[in-house]
Specification:
Layout (H helix, E strand, L loop, with lengths): L2 H15 L4 E3 H8 L3 H13 L3 E5 L2 E4 L15 H8 L3 E3 L1 H7 L10 E5 L7 E4 L2 E7 L3 H5 L3 E4 L2 E4 L3 H10 L7 H14 L4 H11 L2 H14 L4 H4 L11 E2 L9 E3 L4 E3 L11
Parallel strand pairs: 5-7, 10-12
Antiparallel strand pairs: 1-3, 2-3, 4-5, 6-7, 8-9, 11-12
Length: 271
């Protein structure tokens, strides 16, 4: 069989076993019925010929067969790529907020929450930017419901999980001001289930998240007694900053044990 035909035959078999266009040495060995050593050799040859892009050691991205070598084709969907590379993980933060229509703000990076070991917080892979956040609770990550994204299943944080994560760590949704916008949008549209939000906050084990939510609800949405009444049992000792990215300044709220280091006004957000 000519070399080009042999390569296309291998690529066809590899494509069938690839996940989001990604193939590992182990995947190739199984698909081609060869040893891991031979699989690594063939993948290296295909990469040298321009049919594969090396993502990391032992992992390659298969260029679309119709595109030909050295042609990237259309940009791959970052969600399945993230799901394959950083498993176990879920799409969360500002990316999930935008998916659920809670913000019009567009971020270049796809936000990924993972319990896998990561060395860097920001990565660019296949010309796609990823912002990574690591959590220790693997079971909470793996229990996150998945949705279909093309032909792949991808875990996606719910509206309540997205808000809870943002209350615990506002930078996940783009910062404190974006957090308030997202929370206001969720309350305005009626898409936020307060009981589920409470469950997510409890699972997050973040007393700071409850304090921020209590203060914001009392200040901006005092009519939401359903939010305020769930605060009591979950308030913890210790003082935290309303906006953790700003210095400890302003006044201390003894009710919520918060340094009120930024201004929020009811005229800016109202339901």
């Amino acid at each position: 069989m000519p070399a080009t035909s042999s390569r296309k035959h291998d690529l066809s078999l590899l494509s069938r076993s690839a996940r989001a266009g990604l193939v590992t040495v182990a995947d190739a060995a199984k698909a081609l019925h060869i040893s891991n050593h031979e699989a690594a050799t063939r993948l290296a040859r295909l990469h040298k010929a321009g049919w594969l892009l090396r993502v990391k050691r032992g992992t390659y991205f298969i260029r679309p067969l119709e595109a030909g070598p050295h042609d990237m084709g259309s940009a791959p969907d970052p969600w399945p790529i993230a799901s394959a590379l950083f498993d176990p993980c879920y799409i969360g933060g500002w990316t999930a907020a935008h998916h659920w229509g809670l913000t019009d703000q567009l971020f270049r990076s796809t936000f990924v929450v993972t319990s896998a070991h990561i060395r860097k917080r920001s990565l660019t892979i296949l010309e796609l930017d990823f912002r990574l956040a690591r959590v220790d609770d693997r079971s909470r990550v793996t229990a996150t419901p998945a949705i279909w994204r093309g032909t792949q299943r991808v875990r996606l944080s719910s509206i309540e999980r997205t808000v809870a994560d943002g209350l615990a760590t506002p930078s996940w949704v783009g910062g404190f001001r974006h957090l308030v916008d997202i929370l206001n949008s969720a309350l305005n549209t009626g898409s936020l289930d307060v009981r589920r939000l409470s469950n997510e906050l409890v699972a997050n084990k973040s007393g700071a998240a409850f304090k921020r939510l209590g203060y914001l609800a009392e200040t901006l949405w005092p009519q939401r007694s359903d939010i305020l009444t769930m605060m009591g049992p979950h308030l913890t000792s210790g003082v935290v900053r309303l906006d953790p990215n700003l210095p400890k300044r302003g006044r201390l709220s003894t009710r919520w044990l918060l340094w009120i280091n930024t201004t929020v006004s009811g005229s800016d957000w109202s339901t």
